[in-house]
Amino acid sequence: MSFIHNPLNIVELAASIYDANFPLIDRGLRKAIIVHLQIRLPTIMDDEAAWQEYSENKLVLKALHTHQCEMLDGSTLGMLTPPVSPTKK
To answer: What pTM does this model have?
Structure first.
């Protein structure tokens, strides 16, 4: 999704993908847009129209928060912190 640069377009695309009428079998599109949204979140926060659209869409907010919680739980491939170092016995 690196070809989408406009913050408002990113949020609008995420809102469309997370719409109830969008097919549930999306071949990873939902995950890809949420990862892209997370990466571009600082830019979205700086753009007033994009931030307004993002902050009003509860489905997109929930999807991003769910993705971030999964990362913190370690249930996804990308870990945020290194594993605990082993200690001598």
So the answer is: 0.69
